[in-house]
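User: quick one, sequence for these tokens?
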């Protein structure tokens, strides 16, 4: 499935569905809903627990990653999500490039829009992988994507765990500037 596109002037917008700041007003209740999808807290945390040794290996790649074309970065994230969902293993440089691109609102917001609109159903496996292997500042971006994916499918437990990880464990490492309002 490819992202929603919309022609605007001379530009093509990817993932152009706008749902406001996470559509949180109407969907906040999902965060407190206990769906019982996990047998234990350990099972739940295994989805997003950080692999600090792997994050240390990726740090040089992620910190050197340069974003030259936001549209290509969005498409690369879609392709990476498809590959991970199909069980393929991404190279470190691919993980670093996608992870680093999430810090740019011009990449992150179309991806969030695609998650909320259901146009990126394969994304959660990629976001979970990135949340486990990226260094702190980039890990927070991936955790927000995990939260968004889990929220759209009604997994309040995982959404809450991702939000908690960002707010408690990583709050000092990142600056929060999330809004999908255009």
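Assistant:
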């Amino acid at each position: 499935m490819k992202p929603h596109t919309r022609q605007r002037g001379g530009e093509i917008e990817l993932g152009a569905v706008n749902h406001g700041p996470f559509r949180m007003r109407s969907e906040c209740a999902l965060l407190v809903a206990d769906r019982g999808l996990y047998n234990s807290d350990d099972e739940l945390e295994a989805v997003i627990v950080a692999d600090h040794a792997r994050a240390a290996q990726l740090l040089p790649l992620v910190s050197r990653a340069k974003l030259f074309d936001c549209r290509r970065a969005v498409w690369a994230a879609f392709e990476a999500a498809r590959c991970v969902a199909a069980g393929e293993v991404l190279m470190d440089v691919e993980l670093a490039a996608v992870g680093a691109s999430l810090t740019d609102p011009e990449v992150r917001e179309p991806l969030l829009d695609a998650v909320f609109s259901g146009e990126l159903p394969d994304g959660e496996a990629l976001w979970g992988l990135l949340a486990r292997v990226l260094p702190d500042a980039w890990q927070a971006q991936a955790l927000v994507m995990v939260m968004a994916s889990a929220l759209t499918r009604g997994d309040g437990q995982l959404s809450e765990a991702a939000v908690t990880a960002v707010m408690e464990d990583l709050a000092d490492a990142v600056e929060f500037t999330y809004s999908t309002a255009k």
